[in-house]
Amino acid sequence: MLLYLSLIDKPEDKEKFEKIYYLYRKRMIYTANSVLHDIYESEDAVQNALLLLAQNIDRIEEAKSLRTEAYVLISARNAAIDIYRVKNKKKSTVSYDSKDTEADLDNILDGICSEEKYTGIINCINELDDIYRDTLYLHYVEAYTVSEIAVILNRKKATVKKQIIRGKQLLIENMKKEGII
User: Fold this and answer.
1) Cα–Cα distance, 34 to 23 (Å, whole number)
2) Are 163 and 144 in contact (CB under 8 A)?
3) Contact present, 140 and 80 (Cβ < 8 Å)
4) pTM surpassing 0.85?
5) Nearest-CA neighbor of 42 among 24, 30, 54, 27?
6) Domain 103-178, CATH 3.40.350.10 — does that match?
């Protein structure tokens, strides 16, 4: 805690950070653990999120509010996702376990052998709107299930399924424009 407080100059900001720390720390660990499924890595993610929070404490108006709670928990989730990505960066496999009706993309992805095409697909995914980009990235690149994505993004499973279907359609269009397919 002293490390975080040493990053903060104003006494009222230090007090605000302490309140946030004690109010949300356990929920931050729970949120990070829902992504990482490892308590030690989850604690690391929470420490990373708290460091960023301490550096940006002036952006938070009050410690106990829904907005602050959402900000803190999303920060923990994002820090956990960052750790997960680093941990699994060496994996360059794509998951094909989708049960959706868009079999076209699955067939295309099954046939990809070259790293160049894989990189092209990742670039096409990154060009999509946030809603579809996050969902498709977590599903195909990070190999999360629909249920796990729903938890990570705090959305309903049905919403995630629809976003995967619609995102696939947009991805196919982008891939055609880029000449990948």
Assistant:
1) 19
2) no
3) no
4) no
5) 30
6) no
Would the pLDDT of 38 be above 80?
yes
- What are phi and psi for residue 22, nearest 5 degrees? -75, -30
Cβ pair 4, 21 in contact under 8 A: yes
> Using N-to-C axis directions, what is the helix angle for 146-153 and 157-178, rounded to 10°?
100
List pLDDT tens digits, range 98-111.
444 455 555 555 54
Domain map (residue ranges) of the chain? 2-87, 103-178
* Cα distance between the two ends of the chain: 52
pLDDT at 94 (0 to 100): 44
Determine the pLDDT at residue 89.
66
Which of 47-61, 104-118, 122-136 has the weakest average pLDDT? 104-118
The mean pLDDT value of the chain amounts to 79
The encoded tokens of residue 38 equal: 């490892």
Judge whether 168 and 102 are in contact, CB under 8 Å. yes
Tokens 């602050």 map to which residue?
68
- What is the residue type of 105? L
